[in-house]
Hints:
Blueprint lengths: L1 E3 L12 E3 L8 H11 L18 H13 L2 E3 L4 E12 L9 E13 L2 E12 L5 E12 L4
Parallel strand pairs: 1-3
Antiparallel strand pairs: 2-5, 4-7, 5-6, 6-7
Amino acid sequence: MIRVAKARELSAYIDVETVCPETVSIDVDRLQAFLAVSGDRQAIHLPVADRAAVIPANLLLAVSPAALQSGLQVSAFKACFTAGYRKIRFLETVTVGQAMELYYTISSVRHLRRKTYVVLRLELRDKSSAQKLAEFWQTDVYIDADG
């Protein structure tokens, strides 16, 4: 867990691997809500009696910012948003109810005017085996609270 007042203070934690305390798991209700909104009708994403549904890759990306907040907390900012993803790799199938942990490493912190750009390397790992399921880079932008 990393806690700082201002995003620029995250530079003290570059290259430190940290695990978020909150377990990530996607249940059937969340999957079905996502499928309804996205219009995804691929059979592999639909639960059937003999197998668990496979979680769509976009849903795995969508849950990462909220999961990251459980392990990386900045207290003084006006706004924060995820500016983008890159180097996205899905390495293993993730199914409904599978318990995962989000690991992150801060790669760079750059402060420019009233904005701080934080680049993180993220990995979703299976909670029981620690097997890497997905890896990607995420850029978050924090806008300073003070003018």
